[in-house]
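Cross-check.
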Amino acid sequence: MFEHLVSFKFKQPLDAQKEQELIETLLAFKQQIPGIVEITAGSNETEETDHIQGYSIGLRVTFQDQESLRQYGPHPLHQQFVKSIDGLVDNVIVIDYPIKK
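Predicted model, tokenized:
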């Protein structure tokens, strides 16, 4: 399996409704994009405030394999999400790694 971690930093703080809308869109990927084993997303509520650096939404997607992760990027629903946040995002951090058991 492969883990995909994403942290989103927006140019301006999002209101709670917009943040929740984006999170719900991300969570819906599980039923709509093949190869997703598990997905979680949410608002950053860390108490480590010195380390937030403006990142307000986190995403974790577990894929059944690396090929599923590769297919995720160009998937139309993923691309639609990327377009929906165009102009809102200041930075995104992505980390992908194989899950070793």
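The CA atoms of residues 11 and 89 lie 6 Å apart. The beta strands are 2-10, 36-43, 55-63, 89-98. Passed to J.P. for a second look.
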